[in-house]
Specification:
With 277 residues, the protein is mostly helical. The protein is 73% helix and 0% strand.
Amino acid sequence: MTTRDKYFRYVVYLGLLIGLVFSSFPVIWILSSSFKSNTEIFSIPPELFPESITFTAYNNIFQNNEKIRFFVNSYFVSIIVTALTLIIAILSGYSFSRFNFKLKRFLNLTIISTQTIPPISLLIPYFGVVIFFRIFDTYMALVLTYLVFTLPYATLMMTSYFNSLPKELDDAVLVDGGSRFQALLKVIVPISLPGIVATCVYTFLLCWNEFLFALTLTKSTEMRTLPIGIQLLMGQHSYEWNEMMAMSILGTLPILLLYLFAQKYFLAGLTSGSVKL
């Protein structure tokens, strides 16, 4: 290894270290602050680690049914949207990958074009639609709205993965007297687990972290999701910073566990195949 290569490696390591510190410090500060009192959080000079660990913020959350409801709502909406997105994306992705039909290319281009529209520009139109159908402040409003944002990219991901699988797999099932649906259900879906997991993780993350539409399309605390619940801790005269930090940590755990569990499949699903229109 030449001296130039060594210097280059040191620069790369230094850059990675700086990036690690820069990205991990906010998480460490949030975790530490969740075990502090509000007074200690704003102590001068500030301290990274608490002088005395307290679980007051976590106790206040778990003993408050309203705050527990924020988690329940986020779980319910995210799981429902993820399940519906997977079913529709698998069926539509398989159709785009295996069949030729009129307007196929037009539909593909339409799906791609929807990803270029800023979501905030659709806020008022969707609010009007929700009011028109009288589903404001309901689970239905959130589920239908989130489906609009998750389905296009999920369909592209599943189409891409199905394109990477040989069509001879389908033909083998058809030769044995099976149907297209049997080929999809018994052969294609089981070997498409990486693509399905990648789609699942993407969809769940989008729903779990969404703030703007959840804020606009719901009104009562019974329908608020976790991101809105964290924002509600910012009162007019005081902020419950330690509870905000604790809810942020609790809200991050499902995402972290989901990613750790599905990391291998997630990365394989993202890197497998290419989008073929």
